[in-house]
Specification:
The chain is an alpha+beta fold. It contains four helices and nine strands.
């Protein structure tokens, strides 16, 4: 049985740029919790992941401009970090526009439309036959040898609702639900040990594409410790799927290969903990 690979689904890398954009918000968190967030470049963040046994991390930017007056962490910075460690980090971006449907003194219901981007990089090591087909991994490939890489990029249109309501004194529930009616998929499949010049070898990576749909659900239960500070526990589930093709045509040496039907599904889920601090007059 393959070992379970832990994934951190909500990471903010503590690089110089990230810490500068956090400003007084991060200083207030450090002061309240009596901790110190040291600046670490992405190499140090990945070493921390290694120490904690985390295989992959979904990294997010930061935008507290309305509270701190400082600019947000640019998406280009997140993309550059992912490019340094494509097999360990997954980039995330989402842009939404919306407005209020219902508002009350202590609740709100908003509608939004937006765009979602997700990049996934996966790598497989080793191969051994556990059934009876000697033509596939009949001679075992050691686990230290990379055999396959897969890079997937998802672009999605988001239509959804955000609901923020009180439950009891100091306890609130925030729910974000989005339907993804249009999902565009692009992939690249590299069989590293089969790229060559002999008949039947691949000339390089096999491009993939497809279209589909999906949905995203997120809920956060938050508790207000003081008038300014709150803590929250949340959960997230994303699902995207596409129907398309793997394009083998003109990519197999001395072989008249054709495109093959390909279906992809991607599911991300997990729990997270967050803190909040309110600036200005209460």
């Amino acid at each position: 049985m393959a070992a379970i690979r832990p994934i951190d689904i909500h990471m903010h890398p503590s690089t110089d740029l990230f810490m500068d954009c956090g400003g007084d918000y991060l200083k207030a968190i450090d002061e309240f919790f009596k901790v110190n967030h040291p600046v670490k470049e992405i190499d140090g963040v990945v070493k921390d992941m290694d120490g904690a046994g985390v295989a992959l991390g979904v990294i997010f930017g930061w935008d507290a401009e309305s509270a701190t007056g400082l600019p947000p962490v640019p998406n280009d910075h997140i993309a550059a970090l992912v490019a340094e460690y494509p097999d360990r980090l997954i980039g995330f971006a989402s842009v939404d526009l919306g407005g209020a449907l219902f508002r009350g003194p202590d609740f709100r219901v908003d509608a939004f439309i937006g765009y979602h981007y997700l990049n996934e990089n996966m790598k497989a090591f080793g191969c051994r036959q556990i059934a009876s087909n000697p033509t596939i991994c009949g001679t075992a490939i050691p686990d230290s040898t990379a055999v396959i890489t897969q890079e997937n990029t998802w672009h999605s249109l988001r239509l959804g609702l955000n609901v923020d309501i009180p439950l009891v004194d100091r306890l609130r529930l925030n729910v974000d639900a989005a339907w993804l009616p249009y999902v565009w998929f692009r992939g690249s499949d590299s069989h590293l040990l089969r790229i060559g010049t002999a008949p039947g070898d691949f000339t390089g990576a096999i491009p993939e594409d497809g279209h589909g749909w999906g949905y995203q659900l997120e809920a956060v239960l938050s508790y207000r410790l003081t008038d300014r500070i709150s803590l929250g526990l949340g959960g997230r589930y994303w699902h995207m799927q596409s129907h398309g093709y793997a394009h083998f045509e003109n990519r197999v040496v001395a072989t008249a290969a054709t495109a093959q039907v390909l279906d992809w599904k991607s599911d991300h889920y997990g729990v997270f903990f967050q803190g909040g601090y309110s600036f200005g007059a209460l």
